[in-house]
Amino acid sequence: MPTSSLDLQATSEKQYIYTFTEGGAEGDATMKNLLGGKGANLAEMANLGLPVPPGFTISTEVCTYYYEHGKTYPSGLLEKTLPEALASLESTMGKKLGDPDDPLLVSVRSGARASMPGMMDTILNLGLNDRTVEGLAERSGNPRFAWDCYRRFVQMYGDVVMELKPVDARHEDPFEEILDRKKAARGIELDTELDTNDLKELVGEYKQAILDATGMEFPEDPLEQLKGAIGAVFGSWNNERAIIYRKLNHIPGYWGTACNVQAMVFGNMGESSGTGVAFTRDAASGENIFYGEYLMNAQGEDVVAGTRTPLPITDLKAQNPAIYAQLDDIRMRLEQHYRDMMDIEFTIENGRLFMLQCRVGKRTGLAAVRIAYEMQQEGLIDEKEAILRIDPEQLVQLLKPVFDRQQKEAAISEGRLLAKGLNAGPGAATGKICFSAQDARELSDQGEQVILVRIETSPEDIKGMAAAEGILTQRGGMTSHAALVARQMGKVCIAGCGDLKIDYRKGELHINGAEQVFKEGDYLSLDGTTGEVIAGKIETRSSEVIDVLETGNSEAAMSETWKIFNQFMRWADTYRKLRIRTNADQPDQAKTAIAFGAEGIGLCRTEHMFFGGDRIDSVREMILADTREERKTALEKLLPYQREDFYGLFKAMGDRPVTIRLLDPPLHEFLPHEETEIEDLSRKINLPLQEVLQRIDNLRESNPMLGLRGCRLGILYPEIPAMQVRAIMEAACRIRKEGHNIVPEIMVPLVSTVGELEITGEIIHKIARRVMAEQETGINYLVGTMIEVPRAALTSGDIAKHAEFFSYGTNDLTQMGLGMSRDDAGQFLPTYQNLDIFHTDPFCSLDQDGVGRLMKISAMEGRKTNPDLKLGICGEQGGDPATISFCHSLGLNYVSCSPYRIPIAKMAAARAALG
Ligand code: PEP
Ligand code: MG
């Protein structure tokens, strides 16, 4: 039961503010949508009886209201509800905001439903002004502490609310510049060496800088400060970096953020105070150890901002065993309660511990699988939950390349190891140095691999971080902005590399102990697993998991990574309903796919077989043939090649099903373009150059993707499918005679009307029967079609009467369904995504509302007339987790994707099955 003075509000009108205090809160962890993650978990920790400073949360509904009503608040919120909530907090704390003798100070923090580290705004020490600072000095008996708080408050408020910011990424923060100048003038290095007088001067200089730049006085009235800070927090929901972050992480704009107002506790009261951030397990490797860092005599932002390099949490054990033991106990309680790895923030005020935040911790893909696996082993979660804990895309990190060991050892023995920093994001990256996020984006757009090198990163750098292969920072710990964001993006990251000296203005990187000066564009290699920074380029090589899968490497098979990966694959196999096939055309691809767990081939694009060796000449001869006889002669030359192709593929696949698609692309795609190549071809096929040029010209089409391609080719030139079907069936008979139970699935592309499938089906059956008679062998083959033209999707009931299977070609179905050329959409899709017309690229993740609807209609109507119809997907979206989940909901039999996506597809299918 709510017990606060806000009861009245809760019963008579909509509740917008929820209070929390140690031992009791109006909210709990289930109320994330309303209170944001931070607010809900503060309430939960308070309910658990953990030491949480009291406060209140203004709900996300206020944020939504704010944006829906021209940046105004619900009526009465600022005038009545907020003052009431404040009064309740003041009475709990026994202090008043703005009281010159004993002021209440508060923090004001954002907190959305999903955590968005560092993307939105926070203000600490609110309530200080020229009068209350004296009261705080008096009460704490520590004037230096009081003025340090005030200095920090003016800096944060000036930045966040009054918006005095760096001119651009190449300039330092204006407040930091003033601070650096002060330290230089005083001949000191650390902020902690500033005395009370310095801090007083700094407050004056900061305020003057704000006035000069904005024309506005710093507000002295604490209530005005509070309203300004709340406005800034809600305003920060729509700042550029938050919007970019939301896009990258698929967080919808309408969620809004909550705003948490909480009594301050102080980590900067002297050497018996401090602050820290920690994870209940290692967020980089997943190891079950207490992992984090802290700083004594510091406030929260000092640890994350990376301006001072913090100490590992284990040092706290020696420094303050009692606090460490209490913290370690809270760590265990939180893990038992939440049954997950948690990320916590704490402050020690004069030897007393306070919990400021807890949330499910961000982790690398490697850590995610290890933590889920070990928590299952420890009995905290079951295997279903373990599967649901893994974002399938995280498995990509287990398949990520590492440095070629020999090359790396050689680089180190050549003295190219430059420095060591914190191994904040595992993996190997090599690329060209860029010193700004903007440059990183530009260079990466030119197709270069980039290493972003910064003194420290800030949320403004997010786009550049996304573009870079790896991130290297001079300052900051394992929980600095660079480290957190890089891990979440799955980027290689080395943080806190103190030996670096970066000169943004000159565009130079100097490294202590190294003579070489590195400039923009020079190569650098980062080993994010060990923290080593190495000069020059180093080739990367596949991960242990890839080693085991591709080469059966027995040493790699002993590794923990492989063991855990393998266990997840087995769990996924237990629960998934969808079969997982692969798109492959060559025996070696098929072998890789089987090693990754493919259960069949969902798409063999036969055109890829035509480019090898001298067979392309016969293909071209066939295409340029003037008469059926000429064409047949050329096709006869191709037959043995195709037969061998299919034999190789069937052999690699054993008894697994193989879907072979008949020739699909426009014929001109096979023809030469260079003059010398055309001359060469004219000699080889013994046709005058002019004639060759004329025939090539005749094949030209205005819109080839909608021209003579797919089944239309076989209807005009039946001898082409006839040759391919003969090759398929002859290879199948040979395999059958060798004792394998092959079931070739012959697939007709680009069907839009049932008549096309009927005619092509007749050709297929005629040749198949003929070959089986010649070979005296029975083959259980299937005939089916791609569904990749909208009309085929809408008339699937008729088409299914002549097909044993459908495979959704969602590349073409998207292209034709949206009327967007798959080859040209790159020009406008990024803009479409920026404008939120599309949330994701429909060529990567299925447009479920439109193209998905076509699939749904097709699957329903197809199964109505042919209940045994087998259904699959073979477009690129078949390897995308969201699409896989959709395919599961449609009841498809399988998805088909590239070999390296199979583990991701398996996990996605298992998660879909587990709901
Ligand atoms: C498709 O269109 O989805 C498909 C798989 O075929 P292709 O990409 O070869 O056109
Ligand atoms: Mg297609």
Automatic annotation (TrEMBL):
Active site: H481 (tele-phosphohistidine intermediate), C874 (proton donor)
Domain called PEP-utilising enzyme C-terminal: residue spans: 561-912
Cofactor: Mg(2+)
Reaction catalysed by this enzyme: pyruvate + phosphate + ATP = phosphoenolpyruvate + AMP + diphosphate + H(+)
Residue stretches making up the PEP-utilising enzyme mobile domain: 448-531
Stored PROSITE patterns: PEP_ENZYMES_PHOS_SITE
Pfam family, one: PPDK_N
Sites where the protein binds Mg(2+): E788, D812
Binding sites annotated in the UniProt record for substrate: R605, R661, E788, G809, T810, N811, D812
EC number: 2.7.9.1
Gene Ontology molecular function: any one: ATP binding
Origin: domain of life: Bacteria
Family statement: Belongs to the PEP-utilizing enzyme family.
PANTHER family noted in UniProt: PHOSPHOENOLPYRUVATE DIKINASE-RELATED, PYRUVATE, PHOSPHATE DIKINASE 1, CHLOROPLASTIC
Entry function: Catalyzes the reversible phosphorylation of pyruvate and phosphate.
This protein's name: Pyruvate, phosphate dikinase
Organism, scientific name: Prosthecochloris vibrioformis (Chlorobium vibrioforme)
Lineage, broadest ranks: Bacteria, Pseudomonadati, Chlorobiota, Chlorobiia, Chlorobiales
